[in-house]
Design a protein that fits this description.
The protein is α/β, with parallel strands linked by helices. The protein contains 11 helices and 10 strands. About 40% of the residues lie in helices and about 15% in strands. The strands form 2 sheets. Strands 1-2-3-4-6-9-10 form a 7-stranded mixed β-sheet, with helices on both faces. A 3-stranded mixed β-sheet has the order 5-7-8.
Length: about 260
């Protein structure tokens, strides 16, 4: 495992922290390989219900490290190589991105590939591909318009302008904006609410598949997954009781930040 990707377990939540501050947490070959490997590992680890991806301060990541363009140990140079962003999208468990600072280009694609995003008040997002004279290859032109709408996505991509945390919340790019020092505690609390049930993976898959379907087809897909399904009433009742108790016992998730 790369020395630049720290891994910790908090209950059923796996926390991955990008740790290359001297290089603005840029994604060089070994770090990209470590991200791909860990994303593959969590899918087969029954001790992991959710993943939090973050980085050491002061930035989230400057994207691909153009100063170190050597391939990772598992990269062939083929356009079909699995990218870190694609590896995240392939995970059948929730991956929450906790963005602690500037997040641009390749790192932006990584964040967009996560299930959703929690942003520090210091977070800023930008697509700088056009400014560098290159074209996105990790999914940005498909993912960004689905998050913020095609007109806003076009503006961000061809202008390279930064979007700060409040604006990111307003346009639907992030789910929450919290005080910087509360970023990881808030995100861990949010991830800790996710139940370790097979239904989570199925629901995420329905959302992903449904994005490319008509409303009628998406509704039919959901219906097809429920036909013939058997439910354990006792387990359902117990789960509902635990959820109600947890909600009564915890503070409002918006107490320390702004949420959407």
């Amino acid at each position: 495992m790369s020395e630049h990707l720290r891994i910790k377990q908090h209950g059923a939540v796996r926390v991955l922290t990008i740790d290359r501050p001297a290089s603005k947490n840029a994604l060089h070959g070994p770090l990209r390989a470590a991200l791909r490997a860990e994303m593959g590992a969590v899918d087969h680890d029954e001790n992991v219900a959710a993943v939090v991806l973050t980085a050491v301060d002061p930035v989230f990541s400057a994207g691909v490290d153009f100063k170190q363009l050597q391939r990772g140990p598992d990269e062939t140079g083929n356009a079909l190589d699995l990218t870190p962003a694609a590896a995240i999208r392939a995970v059948r468990k929730p991956v929450i991105c906790a963005v602690n600072g500037v997040c641009v280009s390749g790192a932006f694609e990584v964040a967009l590939s996560c299930s959703f995003i929690v942003a520090s008040e210091r977070a800023k997002f930008a697509d700088t591909h056009a400014m560098l004279g290159v074209v996105p290859t990790w999914g940005l032109t498909a993912l960004l318009p689905r998050a913020v709408g095609v007109r806003k996505a076009r503006e961000m991509s061809i202008s390279g302008a930064f979007v700060d945390a409040p604006e990111a919340l307003r346009v639907g790019l992030v789910n929450h904006v919290v005080p910087h020092e509360q970023l990881l505690p808030f995100t861990l609390d949010l991830a800790g609410q996710i139940p370790a049930t097979p239904a989570v993976a199925e629901i995420l898959e329905l959302y992903t598949t449904g994005e490319d379907l008509s409303l009628a087809a998406a509704l039919a897909l959901e219906t097809s997954r429920s036909i013939g399904r058997k439910y354990d009433l006792a387990a359902f009742t117990a789960g509902a009781s635990r959820t109600a108790a947890r909600q009564r016992g915890r503070e409002s998730p918006t107490a320390e930040g702004i949420s959407q």
